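Quick one: co-fold with tryptophan.
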Amino acid sequence: MNKNAKSVVFSGVQPTGNLHLGNYLGAIKNFVELQKKMECIYCVVDLHAITTFQDPKELKKNILDTTAGFIACGIDFKKSIIFNQSSVSGHAELAWIFNCVSRVGWMSRMTQFKEKAGKNKENASVGLYVYPNLMAADILLYKATHVPVGDDQKQHLELARDIAQKFNNDFKVKDFFPIPEPLIQKKLSRVMSLRDGTKKMSKSEESDYARIDLQDGEDEIVKKIKKAKTDSSPIPSKIDDLKNRPEALNLLNIYSFITDTTMEKTLDKMAGKDFSKFKNELSDVLVATVCPIGKKIKELKKDSKYLLQILQEGANKADLIAQKNVKMVKEIVGFITHQ
Ligand code: TRP
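Sure, here it is.
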């Protein structure tokens, strides 16, 4: 990589529903930390959202909700750029150029498409298929060098690296695009469903009991943790003994991450206890962390003008960088650009 390139962080969250504990612990908590060290751009990826049909009214609401969530979790919109993807046209423009750089063979290896499209592949949108090219465009539009993602996005990031490399090679512009590095949290890269410890916590799982929304009240959190699936053995003292106990592992992981301790220390403290006791402690720390964030989200949502203004200012800042880079890309590709 070009040694003179400065570090830029880019990441995106889809506005497809309420933010939940998985979004917070798996991504946004880390976004907040990274602001201290690097220039950061955080995007509400509405273009990605419409790869599966979104009700227009809901989409608008979800874009504002996600923005409120970013701010409530501690992203500083004065320091970092927060904006919605569709308001900066460079994303779509660069995505088209990348559609022509990326290979069909690369696309057809993407495992997330296979999962999301399910059995009825023929009926999936073309957008869903080429979605990883748009994600590469998001990142490279700002020449981002670091991308915090969950491990389910690792393959997409590798594709973005391949696209950057192929573009630089094909057009003989060595180092034009940096090769972006994934930042994958080692401690906790995935929060799992509370109903099935082998599935990621997600907005799409039907049962509300599978996830904790950041806007859940105290009663809901307590109830959901009480109902969370576990097994009948007590908490072990060694991590190895959690191997075949995904639900137990998940709850202990969540506890460790929220309290900023290691799994070892959590097990030292909890070993031998049964889950009903541990769940009380888990509920307490969750309520203490999640409820203030939820309250802030609800407050921010009341003032949509304020949120719109933040998005507008973010879009202006992002667009300045994007337009400059798109113009360079167009020149490199051989298009005619105008003043
Ligand atoms: N695809 C990501 C997800 O579903 C969201 C995303 C879009 C993203 N563009 C990105 C993440 C760029 C990191 C960088 O979670």
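If it helps, The chain has a mean pLDDT of 95.
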